[in-house]
Amino acid sequence: MKKMGFAMMLLGLTLLSFGCGYFLASNQNIEMRHQAAIGIEERPNIKAAVFNENSKVVCEKEYQRCKHLIISEFERKDELLGKNIEEIRAIFREENGFRVSWQGDTLLIRQIIDDWCPDDKSKCRLKEYQGRVAVYQGPNAQNDILLRVTSIIMSSLPAEVQKSIRDNKFEFANEQLLNDALENLDEY
Predict the structure, then answer these.
(1) 92, 109 in Cβ contact below 8 A?
(2) Would 43 be classed as within a structural domain?
(3) For a Cys staple, 168 with which of 53, 59, 85, 141, CB 3.0–4.6 Å?
């Protein structure tokens, strides 16, 4: 009988321990579920988010021909004030090469441009055109346009300079740098 009473007491303590453990575990889950629900409620609704004077905006321009990506601050922020994402997308339409999205607390406006970046477009080079030195502008020798033909006759230049011009080695970042080089060639 004593053994039976001891066994019953041990069984009762075990059940009580399991009951307390279950109660504490279920109470903690309620708190965790409550915290998760609070987190969801506090999360901003992206479609309802409105651009304001404290909002950040980044402008990305991706140039398809040269594969350059230029990231800058967006200059026309005042046009976006008070607008939600759908209203902003109506201004910067996807069919015009724009993609608009929220990245955290920053509005990202990405534009895909089927052209060369401004730096590549402003490159200039000297090439031969009908026996004269000519100025071409464009990203490379295969995609440039004739700007002007100079009065410098190719045959009047030293052979190594002629070869360099024919090999497209007279390339400059912009027209001003090219004009400086032309002044030196004009001496021949």
Answers:
(1) yes
(2) no
(3) 141
What single letter denotes the amino acid at residue 150?
T
Rounded to whole angstroms, how far apart are CA atoms 2 and 85? 77
Question: CATH number, domain at 109?
Answer: 3.10.20
Domain end residue (candidates: 69, 84, 113): 113
Q: Residue 107 falls within a domain, yes or no?
A: yes
- Please state whether the predicted TM-score (pTM) of the whole model is above 0.90: no
Domain extent at residue 174: 122-185
Residue 128 within a domain: yes
- Whether the CB-CB separation of 188 and 157 falls below 8 Å is answered with yes
